[in-house]
Amino acid sequence: MYFKFGRPDVARRLFDEMPQRDVVSYNTLIAGYSNCGNLAAAGEVFDGMTERNPVSWSSMIAGHARRGDLVSARELFDRVPAADRNVVCWNAMVSGYTQNERFSEAVKVFQMMLQESRTSVQPNEVTLVSVLSSCANLGALDLGKWIDGYIKKRRMALGLFLGNALSDMYAKCGCIVEAKKVFDRMVEKDVISWTIIISASAMHGLSEEAISGFHDMLVHGIKPNDITFMAILAACTHGGMVEDGLNYFEMMSREFGINPKVEHYGCVVDLLSRAGRLSEAEDIINSMSVPPNVVVWGALLGGCRIYKDDARGERVVRRILELDPEHAGSYVYLSTVYASFGRLEEAAKCRLKMRENRVVKTPGCSWIEVDNTVHEFFVGDRSHPQSDKIYSMISSLGPRMKLAGYVPNTSVVSQFIDEEEKEDALFMHSERLAVAFGLISTKEGTTIRVVKNLRVCTDCHDAMKIISKIVEREIVLRDRSRFHHFKEGRCSCKDYW
């Protein structure tokens, strides 16, 4: 109680005055310090204990994880005696990794837990919700399916938290039909349940289904929230449904009293920019009720890039750099624009300024799951044990792709190198390495599923269409904004993304 009212000093004094202290009193003090972020004091109490139980360990592990200190959390976890390593301790470590976006580590710890569970602890709903979240972010469909089977086998109730997590996993792994099946299995559904399905439809480019789901939600008496409107605006964006999107944007405040956040404005600017209505998009930004951020201006910059409105683009870049002097994309854009106009000296200055300001582009990273193991690839990565085979597959695909009509789009390569080197750089993009690994590691006809942390570039998008045709495989790629289903030389997005 004293921690709740900001008086840890009183709590500690009362603890020190206790004639006898048991493990419960120690744990209470540790939990209080951990919850308010004072890990040093919590550690002092923990170190002074002569007897510890699972609660002692899990409180300390969770406290370090909440602060983002996963090294200390893991060191503590590895020290937990076998007798004390119960499901709460495992959950503290798995949840800690998941909450800090260390998804691969969360999955690895869960797999360790399964090995121990044969003789002792079994995962519970809290464990599965955390792991399903990691599976969703990694695109680890096989493990997600295994968890679904585990839930059915143990006849676990599909409550709101577990049902939503399972549905979200299937949706983010590209299996929208399975996501809807889970949704239908759920006895109770809330706004999150409906929003997951609406968002899934939007990410897959099924704009009309997303809108239909939104209206079904209203019929069932569920009031949408701000995240629901993010999903419906994204659906309109991916479907090029500009007027519908603008109507839903107005509906949000008019009918549901939801004030638009900067993210909603970003969606509307993106909606207009993708459709080439750049002046309207800029007017929206200038009339926003909240200050525009880099993401909002970045959406307009994306439209400038698509429609080659370089004058507006240069102006937008200036605004972005005022907000974020280390915004790598802006420097790269300016450099490319200057180079295209033959203004090489100015292009070189952009590159120099990037180095002076130590601006670093976010590296492209892709994940693919094969045999229940998630493999990670960065651009130009050669750290994988099968790198030789991966690059051999990429080399063999090159001539076949060109025969099938592939023409490398070297304009997406920003480095000042010759054309041949630019082509080589394109073939080293992380999603191509992941796809090549999928081709050498799975049976013919198997769907290849890849997740990427950035938006897929135009050249890789063209390449994936060609690869899907020549290898006769479906390739499902989830990038930062949506899903792309490549099949027989075509993409589900119809080249509008």
TrEMBL record:
Molecular functions per Gene Ontology: mRNA binding; zinc ion binding
The UniProt record lists the keyword Repeat: yes
A Pfam family recorded for this sequence: DYW_deaminase
Lineage: superkingdom: Eukaryota
GO biological process: RNA modification
Gene3D superfamilies: Tetratricopeptide repeat domain
PPR repeats: from-to residues: 22-56, 86-120, 190-224
Ranges for domain DYW: 405-497
Alphabetically ordered keywords of this record: Repeat
Similarity remark: Belongs to the PPR family. PCMP-H subfamily.
NCBIfam families per the UniProt record, alphabetical: PPR
Record protein name field: Pentatricopeptide repeat-containing protein ELI1, chloroplastic-like
